[in-house]
Amino acid sequence: MPYTDEQLAGLVRGDSVHRALYTDPAIFDIEMQRIYGRAWIYVGHESQVPKTGDYHTTRLGDQDVLMVRAADGRVHVLYNRCPHKGAKVVADGEGCAGKFFRCPYHAWTFKLDGSHLGVPLKQGLEGTSYDPTDPSFSMRRLPRVESYRGFVFASQSAEGQPLVDFLGGVRSSIDNLCDRSPVGEVEVAGGIFRVMQRSNWKVFYENLHDTMHARVTHESSYAAARDEAKEMGEMPLELHIMDGNGEPYEFWEKLELRAYDNGHGYMEGIFNPGAAERDPVSRAHFESLTGAYGEQRAREILGMNRHNTVIYGSGSPHTVFQQFRVIRPVAVDRTLIEIQTFRCKGAPEGVFKRAMLYANVINSPSSNVMPDDIELYNRCQEGNATRGGDWVSMHRYHGTDRVEPDGMVSVNGTSELPMRNQFRAWKAYMEAGAGTGADATAKGDGACC
Ligand SMILES: [Fe+2]
């Protein structure tokens, strides 16, 4: 190990972090063990595997895994590895395995929960230590799998907090996302955008609640939106979304930033739901929720005006526009973003169309807004690779964070509290050391739902 635990802890100060956190591949490897080998990480949504045998592959840190629906309806998360020669049993992507998995190399087969089913020409293995009941001849399940309202998380560690405790206060964001459906359920719909960022995974988390960058980084897109609106003589929602980034500093200063344990948090919304209630889509949505929950509850649900939420290690749900930007670290300087959009089941179709509009304007690879950020993430990556200085600043409003029983609240919406909170969690993971994470696997029964 190139770093002692003490050296790792020394890379995070209360008001700054060392640039090695973004640039040193050795630190990335330790993160894969101590954060991604231990924390609850979002795998995917149950609606991505609706029928028996449906599977969906993804990455949990540096591990190839798949989520699969078994015949009894349970969702399992398995390492994508055949125990024979180690081949990935299914190719990256999604599909239906039918009643069982069959490795395309030598036709070893496995039940949908990963357990060993059979091999061809079994007689050739007689008299050897091959034992179909030995778990080492099965596809290995992740030790812990839990679903929260359809969102499936897995942990590579057999021990740790239950999922609901791990999520803490940001459960309310998942709740609000689901409650926007009159039947309380959402489903992934409309395809998934994928964007590879040439930067370290932590930079994106920091940016999600970075209110000071909006009117600077996004000047080109909000200025263009304003010019266009002027020409049109109106500001449609597409332009209104881009225009929001151009609010003056006084606007951002008034927003609330909420930080929770484990690096999670949320930022108040930019868009005014009161104004949105006047448009026909919001009105129809409000009426459908009123029919299901009553007027007061419908107002509460649509009145929760929350912008980005951070589930540290997993990504960022957006409740108002029903997105989940899943953040997958690939290498110290590469991060894959999967952008999922959700349909609120039972809600008017216009609600889903609006979610797709937001995905296209903000999160699509051809968005006018996201490239502004990606350019800056890459500049941070390349600038931090120089010998121009060792520390990255998080000084803004340091020392003023208001402590709550389960986290902290900012005193000003431009505070760098969210970054400090994320690195507080990072440091805690690192200080907890090795030995309780990815190496403590295969003890539990990794299934949910
Ligand atoms: Fe941005």
From TrEMBL:
<keyword id="KW-0479">Metal-binding</keyword>
<keyword id="KW-0560">Oxidoreductase</keyword>
<dbReference type="Pfam" id="PF00355">
    <property type="entry name" value="Rieske"/>
</dbReference>
<dbReference type="GO" id="GO:0051537">
    <property type="term" value="F:2 iron, 2 sulfur cluster binding"/>
</dbReference>
<dbReference type="Pfam" id="PF00848">
    <property type="entry name" value="Ring_hydroxyl_A"/>
</dbReference>
<keyword id="KW-0001">2Fe-2S</keyword>
<keyword id="KW-0411">Iron-sulfur</keyword>
<keyword id="KW-0223">Dioxygenase</keyword>
<dbReference type="InterPro" id="IPR015879">
    <property type="entry name" value="Ring_hydroxy_dOase_asu_C_dom"/>
</dbReference>
<dbReference type="InterPro" id="IPR017941">
    <property type="entry name" value="Rieske_2Fe-2S"/>
</dbReference>
<dbReference type="InterPro" id="IPR001663">
    <property type="entry name" value="Rng_hydr_dOase-A"/>
</dbReference>
<dbReference type="GO" id="GO:0018626">
    <property type="term" value="F:2-halobenzoate 1,2-dioxygenase activity"/>
</dbReference>
<feature type="domain" description="Rieske">
    <location>
        <begin position="41"/>
        <end position="154"/>
    </location>
</feature>
<protein>
    <submittedName>
        <fullName>2-halobenzoate 1,2-dioxygenase large subunit</fullName>
        <ecNumber>1.14.12.13</ecNumber>
    </submittedName>
</protein>
<keyword id="KW-0408">Iron</keyword>
<dbReference type="GO" id="GO:0005506">
    <property type="term" value="F:iron ion binding"/>
</dbReference>
<dbReference type="InterPro" id="IPR036922">
    <property type="entry name" value="Rieske_2Fe-2S_sf"/>
</dbReference>
<comment type="similarity">
    <text>Belongs to the bacterial ring-hydroxylating dioxygenase alpha subunit family.</text>
</comment>
